[in-house]
Amino acid sequence: MADPLTACPCCKQPIAVPPLDDLLEQSGIVGHGAAVLRTAWAARGLPVTATALFDAIYADDPDGGPSTSRMYRELREAVAASNERLRRFGVALLHDGRVHGWRLDLQGGGR
Known about the structure:
The chain has one domain (6-105): Arc Repressor Mutant, subunit A. It has 4 helices and 5 strands; from the N terminus they run ββααβααββ. It has helices at residues 20-27, 31-42, 50-57, 68-86, and strands at residues 6-7, 14-15, 48-49, 92-96, 101-105. The chain has a 3-stranded antiparallel beta sheet with strand order 3-5-4. Strands 1-2 form a two-stranded antiparallel sheet. α2 packs across α3. It is globular, with a radius of gyration of 14 Å.
């Protein structure tokens, strides 16, 4: 059976990508990767700053997270691991240097 169609968070057109919760479950993305993907998905294709992603990743941390350098390292690791798992769905988190952040690509996985 084919993956169910979902609406693109940007343009609302049907796309052959599972809905977000199904995508997370089918890809096995959890933890930091899930927080990054949820935040990027909610941005509807617009870039999300690293600061906004840190806020999502460390929302439950009473200290606001580790040192800045460690946060960037963990963010890069979460994005890389997520992209490995998302590749088969044609989805990618792409770096956007204009805002020092990332955006979601549902149209071909950054290819």
